[in-house]
Predict the 3D structure of the following.
Amino acid sequence: MLQMEELVKQFIWGMSVLTAYLHYNNRINYSDVNILCEGFMRDLLNILFDLKLGNSRQHNSPGYDLISRRKQIVIQVSTKCTPEKVKNTFSTLSRTIPQITYRKGELEKGLAETNKTLAGIKRTIEHHKKTLGSMT
């Protein structure tokens, strides 16, 4: 039990040092470490909650930094937590999420049409096989 207590204390100490470090660096406009922390938070949340989060920066997604397609979760990692920041994030997400949903719907419609076409081609091939088979 003492070992677990020591681990928890070390974790809390490490997070406190990281928080102070981020605060100081942001005050002097050095924010490169913030991007590194997104990866740290992704890994930590994946370990704790098995979210299968990935970086959304690969997809240039406004309003969020991490995404779990499996769990349908988006997360914004930020060192600022002001009411203005939260409102801005929700505003951005309210515009972004419907666009993503619309694109997904359009892709699903296209896929359904492609599947219908492939089924028709398959039926035509089967018909021609039967016709050719009866000729021999």
The chain has three helices and three strands. The chain has a mean pLDDT of 82.
